[in-house]
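Workshop exercise sheet. Pairs work together: one partner reads the sequence aloud, the other fills in the structure field after running the prediction. Swap roles for the next sheet.
Pair: D.N. / O.F.
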Amino acid sequence: MSELESKEYSWRWVTANELLSRTPCELCCAIAYSDGEAIENTALYDGESTTGRLIANLNSGVKAEISLEPKEPIYCCRGLYVEIGENTEGVFVQWREIPQGIGYS
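Structure field:
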């Protein structure tokens, strides 16, 4: 990956429900961290709210972090929304906006 390509990526430490992208993007990874109890109902959506298409539920079942690290980025055609559930200290999310005019077929 060139230095220029790496600058195209965004990241955020999310501690409350948050819309990260209103436009198409690629979800690269998400790591949810526990506040000391099992993570419940933390989720990622393709869209601008919880009414979007569910990408993943991040439920740990134990007092630890849980990660979503796909081999290839996940295409989100309607944006990217993070819902913070119970016992979640925060979620580290990395994504890349898709330049306008470039799409997937």
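Discussion prompt: Strands lie at 9-14, 18-21, 25-34, 42-46, 53-58, 66-68, 74-76, 80-83, 88-97. What would you look at next?
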